[in-house]
């Protein structure tokens, strides 16, 4: 039963280990699979964030520039009918109320700067017809061209940012001033790029890099200061860079988007998000740039977190599995112990049952032995008595034989009486009801009496009997008649089981607390396998040939009962065909 637990337990453990292994495999597989998704999601989110930033910057800037331009147009309406002083006051008011405009200039209908604010930024008296210069070197548009185009089209126009005489870049806003159909002049307001970049582009720290270019790819702003103001962007980069070229194309045509390009000879990958600034006829593009490694760092940090989570999950699975295995093994161990205990108990009760059964069988056998023994022991003398009685009845019997018949009657009668007495004795002894009339007696007397009782039978069988009892033996407190019965029993057994001419000896020794008496013969002895049983009632150790008539196997049982009833004991030592010695112990 115990063995059956072990393999079942191992199988269960194996199953748990397999489930544990499968769970770990699934988790790791899912983790690897989700890595790609994570990478895509992070990349997408990162670039979207960058695009959003570029949109925020460009829309803020567009709003700002358009608002300023509208303000200039409104001012142009206001001053259509105003005196030079009024125009000057208007310029001052507007300049002070708003920010970001470097200078307001008023050119009269002949193209001469007549009014301006602030004064220090105004080139009073500047006549574009006298000091014309090429303002736009690509289309070769001159100040005059622009002045006349604005006058003729009655529309505001803005020039590409150009280098100012005072330094830096500036965008020129030209607005016509009409009173009805009468051309009065134009307002020329300059917004410096440094003003715009201070407001919108400078507030971003690394990893962000902010660029702004115009529709010709000229650099208007570069937070990393790699490019100079007005420098042409494609020239500064590898012109064969296809990625960069397509990005620049999108930027210069007013599109928004995201892209990658390489810097430093292709070693450094950059993510760029760009968004247009639409301002009247101007088309600029704000770009937010970050190193691609930034995304990787982000992805790696996600991976680290994911790995940590997976590690924890795997750890938990392993821990859980081993805890279950440990728990199961403990549980099964306690179960095994319990089973072992119960098995032990069962075995014990089985043994007890077996013993009880054996005892019952023995008792059963004893019962049938007893019946057959007693019936035999009764029938033999009764038959002898019946035959003798019938012969006595016959008249023709001689007196001599009549005497013999009467003797047979008496002997068998004695034998019956002895048997019945023995049966009575054993039943009284076993019920514990035998009463002893104890008195202090001298063992010499008892032994002499017993020897005297049996002497004639010993002589008949020519057995030598010798007594060797120390003179000064203490008296003992016993029932004289019952102890006499003990000695007669032992002596008649010695008589029965000793061949003619044999020796029987009675010796005694006194010890501090007890006296031992030895009844020794050199008869047939008792086989070792039977020695333990001879004190049982109805037991006789010999075979039918050695069985003596009149012995019902009760003598030694009665003898032991009497000895124990006196607080003493009897034991035997014997060697087959050498003889036996029965040792009586009397406590003093
Ligand atoms: P019984 O009354 O029939 O003699 P006991 O109880 O006295 O029965 O003896 C039981 C058996 O013990 C005897 O049948 C005999 O086999 C054995 N026994 C007893 N005394 C001796 C002895 N002195 N020598 C050999 N065997 C003995």
Automatic annotation (TrEMBL):
Histidine kinase domain location: 373-588
Main location: membrane
GO terms, molecular function: ATP binding; phosphorelay sensor kinase activity
ATP-binding found in the keyword field: yes
The keyword Disulfide bond appears for this protein: no
EC assignment: 2.7.13.3
Organism: Candidatus Methanoperedens nitratireducens
The protein, known as: histidine kinase
InterPro entries reported in the protein's UniProt record: CHASE_dom, HATPase_C_sf, HATPase_dom, His_kinase_dom, HisK_dim/P_dom, HisK_dim/P_sf, Sensor_HK_Regulatory, Sig_transdc_His_kin-like_C
SMART domains: HATPase_c, HisKA
CDD domains cross-referenced by the UniProt entry: HATPase (cd00075), HisKA (cd00082)
Keyword line: ATP-binding, Cell membrane, Kinase, Membrane, Nucleotide-binding, Phosphoprotein, Transferase, Transmembrane, Transmembrane helix, Two-component regulatory system
């Amino acid at each position: 039963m115990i063995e059956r637990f072990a393999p079942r337990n191992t199988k269960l453990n194996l199953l748990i280990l397999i489930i544990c292994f499968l769970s770990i495999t699934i988790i790791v597989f899912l983790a690897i699979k989700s890595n790609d998704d994570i990478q895509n999601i992070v990349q997408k989110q990162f670039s979207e964030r960058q695009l959003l930033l570029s949109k925020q910057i460009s829309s803020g800037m567009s709003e700002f520039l358009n608002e300023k331009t509208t303000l200039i147009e409104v001012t142009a309406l206001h001053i259509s009918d105003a005196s030079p002083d009024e125009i000057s006051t208007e310029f001052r008011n507007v300049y002070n109320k708003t920010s970001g405009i470097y200078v307001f200039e008023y050119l009269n209908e002949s193209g001469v700067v007549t009014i301006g604010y602030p004064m220090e930024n105004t080139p009073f008296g500047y006549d574009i017809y006298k000091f014309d210069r090429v303002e736009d070197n690509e289309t070769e548009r001159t100040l005059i061209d622009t002045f006349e185009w604005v006058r003729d089209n009655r529309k505001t126009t803005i020039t590409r940012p150009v280098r100012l005489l005072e330094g830096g870049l500036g965008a020129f806003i030209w607005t016509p001033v009409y009173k009805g159909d009468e051309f009065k002049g134009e307002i020329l307001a300059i917004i410096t790029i440094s003003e715009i970049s201070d407001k919108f582009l400078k507030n971003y720290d690394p990893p962000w890099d902010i660029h702004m270019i115009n529709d010709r790819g000229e650099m208007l702003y570069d937070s990393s200061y790699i490019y100079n103001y007005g420098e042409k962007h494609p020239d500064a980069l590898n012109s064969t860079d296809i990625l960069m070229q397509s990005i620049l194309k999108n930027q210069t045509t007013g599109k928004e988007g995201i892209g990658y390009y390489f810097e430093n000879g292709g070693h450094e990958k950059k993510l760029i998000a760009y968004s247009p600034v639409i301002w009247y006829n101007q088309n600029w593009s704000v770009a937010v740039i970050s190193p691609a490694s930034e995304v990787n760092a982000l992805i790696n940090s996600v991976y680290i977190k994911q790995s940590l989570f997976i590690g924890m999950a795997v750890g938990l699975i392993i821990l859980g599995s081993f805890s279950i295995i440990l728990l199961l093994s403990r549980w099964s161990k306690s179960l095994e112990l319990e089973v072992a205990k119960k098995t032990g108990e069962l075995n014990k009760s089985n043994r007890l049952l077996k013993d009880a059964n054996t005892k019952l069988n023995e008792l059963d056998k004893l019962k049938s032995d007893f019946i057959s023994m007693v019936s035999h022991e009764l029938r033999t003398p009764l038959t002898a008595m019946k035959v003798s009685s019938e012969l006595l009845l016959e008249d023709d019997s001689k007196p001599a034989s009549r005497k013999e018949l009467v003797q047979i009657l008496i002997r068998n009668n004695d034998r019956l009486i002895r048997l019945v007495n023995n049966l009575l004795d054993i039943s009284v002894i076993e019920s514990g009801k035998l009463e002893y009339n104890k008195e202090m007696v001298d063992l010499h007397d008892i032994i002499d009496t017993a020897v005297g009782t049996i002497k004639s039978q010993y002589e008949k069988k020519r057995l030598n009997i010798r007594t060797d009892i120390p003179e000064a033996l203490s008296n003992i407190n016993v029932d004289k008649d019952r102890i006499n019965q003990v000695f007669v029993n032992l002596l008649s057994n010695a008589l029965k089981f000793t061949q003619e001419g044999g020796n029987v000896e009675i010796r005694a020794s006194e010890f501090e607390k007890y006296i031992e008496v030895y009844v020794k013969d050199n008869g047939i002895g008792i086989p070792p396998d039977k020695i333990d049983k001879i004190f049982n009632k109805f037991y006789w150790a010999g075979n039918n040939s050695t069985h003596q008539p009149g012995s019902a196997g009760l003598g030694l049982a009665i003898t032991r009962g009497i000895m124990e009833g006196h607080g003493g004991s009897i034991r035997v030592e014997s060697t087959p065909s050498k003889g036996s010695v029965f040792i009586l112990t009397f406590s003093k």
